[in-house]
Specification:
Blueprint: H1 2-15, E1 30-33, E2 36-40, H2 41-44, H3 50-57
Antiparallel strand pairs: 1-2
Helix pairs in contact: 1-3
Length: 62
């Protein structure tokens, strides 16, 4: 879970978001915000960069 832990730290540092991590099976790596799927490794075929997720979530903060 090192990638998820790194992303959680980046979200806290840059956006003040406390991420909740759930361990999945089979390489699942989804990012959900307010109940909406905002990133899925299954859909893209690759892990996101931390900044990519920060950029996706930033507009949601108002």
């Amino acid at each position: 879970m090192p990638r998820a832990t790194s992303l959680a730290a980046a979200l806290q540092e840059t956006l003040g978001i406390d991420a909740i991590l759930h361990e999945g099976d089979g390489g699942i790596y989804d990012v959900v915000a307010d109940g909406e799927l905002v990133y899925s490794k299954h859909d893209t075929g690759c892990f996101p960069e931390d900044q990519e997720i920060v950029d996706l979530l930033k507009p949601r903060l108002g």
